[in-house]
Amino acid sequence: MNALTTKQRNTQPARRLRRPLHAALHAAEPLHRQVREQIIRSLAEGEWKPGEVLPNESKLADRFGVSISTIRAAIGHLVAARVLARKQGVGTFVSLHGERRSIYQFFHVVRNDGVKALPVSEVLFLKRGQADDATADLLQLPRKASAAQVYKIRNVLKVEGVPVVLSDITVPCALLPGLTESILAKGGPTLYAVYQTHFGLNIVRTVEHLRAARTDAAAAKAFGITTDDPVLNIERLAYTFNNAPVEVRRSRIDTRNYFYLYDQAGTNG
Predict the structure, then answer these.
(1) 10-94 in CATH: which number?
(2) Where are the alpha helices (DSSP H) in the chain?
(3) SS3 of 29, please?
(4) Of 198, 239, 240, 232, which Cα lies nearest the Cα of 216?
(5) Is the Cβ–Cβ distance between 8 and 16 less than 8 Å?
(6) 22-26, 103-107, 172-176, range with the lowest pLDDT
């Protein structure tokens, strides 16, 4: 008789879920990395929203057909990258960009005496336009007026009321439909919190290029200095899951009373 028994029918979905990872046991990439990528894929698809608690380790192990130790290793890497966070007695949840620790994840400006204070974000303007060719390439947009429509945002970060960072930010309009100055002003303590809360975009990685330069007119006005004074220029490309670019940010930092500090903990992948 070819019909499946009730027990066999009930176990079929679990087998289908496990098969891809079991088949990969002999692959060169460690299993915990494969599980990590599966979790990232689920996050990218919106299965777990910002602030939402993930299933416990036992359920995840059963879902992916691996051991609890493999799940712990996969989640540990995502916690180290601050994609996920752990809370004692609560579990593991998707990180929120509006939380204090997440703000510091992407803000590296410190007072000369070593004190790190929370910045306050202020949007100076929001415009819609076309990306220049270099920016379009970074954001993986076609070099066409219709396809390379972007939001251009100028933003200042103040520390203890003093302007310290002036940024010009470019984001594809398709990623932030319906963005307004009101959303930017009221949507969260940082732009990344706005992206996450209102548009479901999680910033999980940034790449930055730093160089010393003379101040441009806009930064000189914001900082109260001259165009002959030096600033630290930073060009940042921010990514969401699966290495998809979200934002190009060109920032100028007034380093008279502040410096840039990047403290990276070593991790094994």
Answers:
(1) 1.10.10.10
(2) 6-23, 31-44, 57-64, 68-80, 100-106, 133-138, 181-186, 191-199, 217-223
(3) coil
(4) 232
(5) no
(6) 22-26
